[in-house]
Structure formats: C-alpha cells, structure tokens
Amino acid sequence: MKKVAVLLGGCGVYDGTELHESVLALLEIAKAGASYQCFAPNIPQLHVVNHLTGEVVEQESRNVLVESARIARGEIKSVDELNIAEFDALIIPGGFGAAKNLCNFAVAGAEHQVEPSVKQFISQFADADKPVGFICISPVMIPQLYGQGVSGTIGSDADTAAAFEKQGGQHKAASVHEIVVDEQHKVVSTPAYMLASDIVEAHSGISKLVVKVLQMA
Fold first, then answer.
1. Are 130 and 44 in contact (CB under 8 A)?
2. Which of 80, 151, 88, 143 is nearest to 116 (CA)?
3. What are the CA-CA distances from residue 142 to residues 25, 150, 188 (Å)?
4. How does pLDDT run across 34-92, given as a tens digit for each residue?
C-alpha cells in the first residue's frame, strides 16, 4: 500500500487550508487504495480571520498544527516528525494558509520565502525523487523548492503566474479541470479553487492530481 503525506496549513480558506480541497484529496487517496498521514508546521498562524465576516480578528492567535488537527480528526504530526522512508509521495492542498503560513506569498508576493520547517519538509521529498502534488495557490512555492525551469500552474491569474516565473519557474496556464505535470521533477499541480466555481469543479482537477501522483510514486 502506498502511503501519502498530506501537508496542511491551518483550518479554513481565509487563514488556513481550504477544507474542500483537503477533504477531496484525502478521499481520493483512500479511494485509490493508498493511506495518508497529515502533517503541519508547529508555528503561529499569520493571523486569524472570522470566516463569517471575512475580517481579521485582532488580538487572537492560533497555532497552525493545532488548527490543522481539526481537518485530520486529531491524527496529525508536526513536520519535524517526518520519516521520509515511510512515504511514497506528498500532496499539499491550498487555501490562504498555503500563502500565509506555509510561505509568505500573501504578504511578500514574488519576493516570498517558504517557511523554513516547511521547506525542509517538502525538500526531503524532492531530494528523494518522490512525487509531490500542489493544489490551488500552493504551487507558488514550487520554484523555490525545485529551482530554475521547473513547471507548474496556479491556473490563469497573471500576477501570480508572473511571481511564479520571477522565482525561476515556468508557469503553464491550465483550466480547473487540468493538471500540469513536470515529469523531470515529479511535480504535479492543479488550480482547484484558484478557478473553481464550486466543489464539483474543484474535485475534477484534484482527482486527476491524486491519480497522477500515485502513478508516479
């Protein structure tokens, strides 16, 4: 049985991991006969957002690992607990948490940096030549992790694509139903809610991404 690590960045689209994307990915992994283990960095969130109003909640702080445990039903580990030999692949859902907690793209744009413990975690898969699937906004981290010339997609947003290329990647526009595969680096990406208007559209690309990642594993 193949085993997939799933990297989360909190809980909730505006300040953490997008729940639909994470649940759909977990479901597709299980349906394919593989198993998964969720991970998250043990760090503070950038901020807390009231998901009813969309407003930042001042003077409240939350921990990314603790919040991610909501999605994982408590079955989660810190990124520094990874034993890379136990895993065949990695999948990273999106949501603003990927751009606020896993890296600081939401604040720094094209000058963003991947959070150090997250970079070390993902790099272990890259260094071991194990496939990684990036969903929604999480592909913005790809160039920093894989270097010049790696390809990926965030869909069709011009500004985000420009930031991707400024960091050394080759951005390929894709529809919500498509995946972009970099065979050399074993990187798969799909736009999901960067373009999806509903959960059915988000599922379309995510299901293809999980299938491809498991094929490459």
1. no
2. 80
3. 19, 7, 10
4. 999 999 999 999 999 999 999 999 989 999 999 999 999 999 999 999 999 999 999 99
DSSP summary character for residue 128? T
Residues 6 or more apart whose CB falls under 8 angstroms from that of 80 comprise 42, 117, 121
Amino acid identity of residue 105, one-letter, is: F
> What is the Cα–Cα distance from 196 to 201, expressed in whole angstroms?
5
Beta bridge partners of 188: 133, 181
Partnered with residue 189 across adjacent β-strands are 134, 180
Instruction: Report which secondary-structure segment, H or E, holds 30.
Output: helix 19-31
Stated pTM of the model: 0.97
Question: Per-residue DSSP letters for 49-109?
Answer: B-TTT--B-TT---BHHHHHHHHTTT-EEEGGG--GGG-SEEEE--SHHIIIIIB-HHHHG
What gap in Å lies between CA 51 and CA 108, rounded to an integer? Answer: 23
Separation between Cα atoms, residue 157 and residue 167, nearest integer Å: 16
Distances in whole angstroms, Cα of residue 184 to Cα of each of 82, 83, 126, 162: 24, 24, 11, 22
Where are the extended beta strands (E) located within the chain? 3-7, 35-40, 76-78, 89-92, 132-135, 151-152, 170-171, 180-182, 187-190
Instruction: Find residue 7's DSSP bridge partners.
Output: 39
Q: Is 136 a catalytic residue?
A: yes
**By the 8 A CB rule, do 130 and 213 touch?**
no
Say if residues 11 and 68 touch (Cβ distance below 8 Å).
Answer: yes
